[in-house]
Amino acid sequence: MQAFLDALLVVAAAALAAIGWGAIRLRRRLVRSERDRRRAADELNRRLSELFSLQELSYILSGSLQLDHIVEQVVRYAMRFLEAQGALVALTVEGEPLRVTAAEGTLAALAGRAVPANDQGLVARSLGRERLEIVHAASGAPTHLLEDVATDSAAAVPLRAHGVVVGTLVIANPGHGALGPEDTRLLSTVATHAAIVIANARFFQMVQHAKEQWETAFDALSEGIAVVDDHGRITRSNRALAAMLGSTIPAVIGCDLSEALLGSSAALLELLAAARQGDRVQPVVLRSATLHRTIRFNAARIPAPAPPPGNDQSVVVLVEDVTDQQALEAQLIQSEKLAAVGQLVSGVAHELNNPLTSIAGLSEFLLEQKELGTKDRDHLRVIHEQADRAGRIVRNLLTFARKGGGPAERALVDLNDVIGRTLLLMSYDLKLQDVAVEKDLAPLPPVLGDRHALQQVVVNLLTNAAQAAAANQPGRPRIIRLTTWFDDRVRFRVADSGPGIPDDVLPHLFTPFFTTKEPGQGTGLGLSITYSIMEAHGGRITVERPAGGEGGAAFLVDLPAARAEAPRTETLDVKRAILLVDDDPAARRMVKALFARDGHTVEVARNAQHALELLRSRTYDLILADAQARVNEHLFVERLAESHPALKDRILVATGAVTSADATLARLGLRPVRKPFNLRDLRDAAARVWGAGARAGAGAGAAGP
Ligand code: ADP
Q1: 458 alpha carbon to ligand 1 midpoint, in Å?
Q2: Residue 53: is its pLDDT beyond 60?
Q3: pLDDT tens digits, residue range 236-255?
Q4: What is the helix, strand, coil percentage profile of the chain, to 5?
Q5: Ligand 1 lined by 505 (C-beta under 6 Å)
Q6: Residue 444, ligand 1, Cβ within 6 A
Q7: CATH classification (class only), 404-565
Q8: Tell me, which fold does domain 577-703 have in CATH?
Q9: Which of 154-163, 176-185, 589-598, 607-616 has the lowest mean pLDDT?
Q10: Angle, nearest 10°, between helix axes 415-432 and 451-470?
Q11: Topology of 61-212 in CATH?
């Protein structure tokens, strides 16, 4: 029994021992699993905290496109994650050395430093590495971040985005001494994330910069640019367009482009529609009645990547103010046209001059003969009037061709006298047209100017007035009223009872070649020439239209009164010796007939050479020479003025065509007499020569070679 009990005890003890052992093992297992669980929980916590930190960083980074802010945050978080003593980010910039863009902790002093390409430190070196590089303190020697900056241990990771290295992230002395696999993973994750955000921020900077550049250019352009939507409303405008509209950029946004610039314009709407379709459009030039400008429009569709159907299709519109450019072009064309016409005219006029001069001169001469029958006299008067009229046309054309150059006489002129003479000249024409002239001429001080040019002014204004009055229906009076008066200026008004000047004609009145008259009735030169003559005399011409559409027009000219005393015109009955140098037989005949009748002697030189020979042996009171006469390729008058300077005051040069001779005459200071001349012109010109001679104290006929 005892033995049994002992055995039982042994068994029990053994069983107990077995149970105790199992319990111990169980307990041990339990302890181990508790440790594992704790470790796992720690790990989990750590991972979670990393994740939250990464999320936080990611949130901060994605919330900003400011490069500086981004790199600062990357540096700060990297330092915090790895409990490092310092961190830095160095970025590459094309064409520049690597630069420390942000630095914290023990590396803070390095912020802003450039890293030379040949620097052997970890910062520069890491750029060329594929992945993270860790340098442990345990390796003995200090770790060089830059050649002159060392630390115990460090890690560097290149920042790579889209296959391009944008910089490097470096941390110094991480908290755990050595970096574990989790640390390196974390650092790599931060680096990958940071690289993408940095690259994006750089793209953003580039786009921003390009946008700023583009906007600056957009606003610097002198042409207006607008982006308009489907409905033609301005969605963007540059400064020039806003200025064109007299407004500001914010104020023009939302306005209808066509309405704002042109009032409604079908042509512009068509252009926009065509551009919207993607057609290549031809620019259109349109006149803006609201802005009083001429504007050229061009438009193009703004390519949209893939517009959903019904989406707005904007077009960009170029708005150019071409008013001045057009005016310049027109002026250029005009002046080219004028130059060509001028040449043509002067050539033709030259050919017409001599025959006209003879017809007018000789018919006038014949009219002065007493023994003429009445009928013949009437015929002759018509011949004379018509030749005179033709002469006036030629003179107008010549003045036009000469515009801006050529010698102009300056003498004291009584405008009333010019008006009186012109009326005499035109009396036949006026009578034919059944136009009555009423005069109210007050005494005037003389004006200083070219008598012929001023006469042309009177002729042109009277001709227009007569034509206007003659256009009246029968029953309406045909009257021209001429008024002169003097206040601070010498003034002359020509008013007619004609139909008046329509609104659309008014702006073109003084434009050369503008005429509303039938071919043969008007050349369109009268008022433009009148304008130039007035300008050359320091005068003005203005047009008046009676209010209330009664018809009738009035032209008003005003001139400054001359201050000097009038030159005395020789009227004494002195017999003169005259030398005539002109190879046109008709001109010779007329001049001879005229001066011979006044008792003067006229000697005719066969040619210019002969004239020079005559001048060697004789003295003359007047040398009347054709401007074109030549001695051995030289202008005769030029030769004469040079070889006989004392005779200069007695030379009268007959000029017709516009030639380079005009400039020569002006240079030499010789008196011109314009062909075609009539008897009065010639007498007046000669009298002025003799008058000047008398004033200068040179005795008549006393000059010698
Ligand atoms: P032209 O008389 O040869 O046509 P002008 O330069 O003298 O050339 O005149 C230009 C235009 O001005 C004329 O064609 C005419 O339409 C207008 N005009 C000039 N004077 C008058 C006037 N007195 N009444 C009405 N219209 C006039």
Answers
A1: 14
A2: yes
A3: 999 999 999 999 999 999 99
A4: 50, 20, 30
A5: yes
A6: no
A7: alpha beta
A8: Rossmann fold (3.40.50)
A9: 176-185
A10: 30
A11: Beta-Lactamase (3.30.450)
Give the Å distance between the CA of 381 and the centre of ligand 1.
28
Strand order in the sheet with 540-544: 436-441, 479-486, 490-496, 553-559, 540-544
Mutate to test the pocket of ligand 1, among 527, 533, 545, 550 (most ligand atoms within 8 A of CB): 527
Query: In this structure, what are the phi and psi dihedrals at residue 576, rounded to the nearest 5 degrees?
Result: -120, 155
Q: Which residue has the tokens 């006044």?
A: 598
Nearest CA to ligand 1 atom 11: 515
- Contact partners, residue 364, CB within 8 Å, separation at least 6: 384, 678, 679
468 lines ligand 1 (CB under 6 A): yes
Beta pairing partners, 233: 256
Question: Does 553 contact ligand 1 (Cβ within 6 A)?
Answer: yes
Q: Do the domains spanning 221-303+313-321 and 577-703 agree at the CATH topology level?
A: no
List the structure tokens of 89: 């980010």
**What element of type H or E holds 624?**
strand 622-626
Instruction: List, as one string, the DSSP characters of 576-604.
Output: -EEEEE---HHHHHHHHHHHHHTT-EEEE
**320 closest CA partner among 407, 429, 238:** 238
Task: Show the tokens assigned to 639.
Answer: 């030769």
Q: Is 501 in the pocket of ligand 1 (CB under 6 A)?
A: yes
Burial 140-149, CB ≥16 within 10 A → b, else e: eeebbbbeeb
Ligand 1 contact, 498 CB (< 6 A): yes
Q: Is the CB of 103 under 6 A from ligand 1?
A: no
| Spatial distance between the Cα atoms of 614 and 609, rounded to a whole number of angstroms | 9
Cβ of residue 494 lying under 6 Å from some atom of ligand 1: no
CB-based contact 186:82 (threshold 8 Å): yes
**Beta strands 577-581; 601-604: pairing state:** parallel
Q: Is 26 in the pocket of ligand 1 (CB under 6 A)?
A: no
Q: Which two tokens stand for residue 695?
A: 């004033």
CB-CB contact of 200 with 166 (8 Å): no
In this prediction, residue 647 carries a pLDDT of: 83
Give me ligand 1 centre to Cα 674, in Å.
25
Domain boundaries, the chain: 61-212, 221-303+313-321, 404-565, 577-703
pLDDT tens profile 162-193:
888 899 999 998 876 667 777 888 888 888 88
- For ligand 1, say whether the CB of 465 is within 6 Å of any of its atoms: yes
Per-residue DSSP letter, 520: T
The neighbouring-strand residues paired with 486 are 490
Q: Output the six-digit token pair for 52.
A: 């939250």
Q: Does the Cβ of 523 fall within 6 Å of ligand 1?
A: yes
Fill in the DSSP letter of residue 132. Answer: -
**Which amino acid residue places its CA nearest to atom 17 of ligand 1?**
509
pTM reported for the whole predicted model = 0.45
Choices 1.10.10.10, 3.60.150.10, 3.90.79.10, 3.30.450.20: CATH for 221-303+313-321: 3.30.450.20
497 lines ligand 1 (CB under 6 A): no
- 456 CA → ligand 1 middle, Å: 15
